[in-house]
Specification:
single chain; about 250 residues; alpha/beta; Rossmann fold; four-stranded parallel β-sheet; 4 strands
Length: about 250
């Protein structure tokens, strides 16, 4: 069994050292009301009193209801400062403006919210000398299940090595609210959206492959396909004159 007490100490020290080296005086993260953001927020608050979580609804009804309520519950339990930045009108304006020059696809529309949230986080960080904390786990990163230059953009990520299952176990150790522990993982990009529904497989199956190298044949094929096809998301942009590896090492 993992020693989460020791891991908590180690991860908190990791954050403190980053703050010291960077000269930043605080942290800001997206408090989405989900498992990953809850764990990041808790660890950041342990490391830095001046930690702020932004709740950023962006068009989805769920953003204003379940996710907002869960985000506020976590913040209240762990004493995390909270601000609400409503991006719905911004998204609507952007969709209208860009829609005049091209026919936006469903994928393009879905990725607008994460990129607007990234912009809001960095605007706050730049204005208040904060670092932006990432909130993606290893399972998502391996599959490329994140938005490039959206939730994939951050200054540091203290849970990047944890699978979705490990994040859940960590939250149980930290006695996170039951609503967070039991809710279905979702990016909240649109009403009714869930991570597992979009991927067509469960995190249990994904994590089994990542941790042991074995899962059912269909899911393994899908995991390997997604990992290959999203390699570009885990690399820096291609620049002339530099060697570029098309696949992850």
């Amino acid at each position: 069994m993992r020693n989460y007490a020791a891991e908590t100490t180690s991860r908190v020290m990791f954050i403190k050292e980053l703050l010291a080296v960077s000269g930043a005086s605080g942290i800001v993260f997206g408090n989405s009301g989900g498992k990953d953001s809850a764990l990041v927020g808790i660890l950041c608050k342990m490391a830095c009193e001046d930690t702020v979580g932004l709740i950023m609804p962006c068009g989805s009804r769920r953003n204003y209801e379940e996710d907002k309520n869960d985000a506020e519950t976590v913040a209240a339990q762990y004493g995390i400062a909270t601000r609400i930045v409503d991006l719905s009108a911004v998204k609507e304006a952007l969709v209208g403006a860009v829609g005049e020059s091209t026919a936006l696809t469903e994928s393009a529309l879905a990725n607008i919210a994460p990129r607007l949230r990234m912009t809001a986080l960095y605007a706050v960080a730049a204005s208040e000398n904060r670092l932006v904390a990432g909130t993606g786990n290893y399972s998502e990163s391996y599959l490329g299940y994140f938005t490039k230059w959206g939730d994939g953009a951050y200054d540091f990520n203290v849970i990047a090595d944890l699978t979705a299952s490990e994040v859940l176990d960590f939250l149980r150790y930290l006695k996170a609210p039951e609503a967070i522990v039991t809710k279905a993982p979702s990016a909240g990009l649109f009403d009714g959206q869930t991570d597992e529904g979009e991927m067509g497989m469960t995190y249990r199956s994904i994590d089994a492959f990542l941790l042991s190298g074995s899962t059912n044949e269909r899911d393994q094929a899908n995991i390997e396909r997604l990992h290959r096809s999203t390699a570009h998301k885990r690399q820096m942009p291609v620049r002339y004159g530099e060697k570029h590896d098309h696949e992850d090492q």
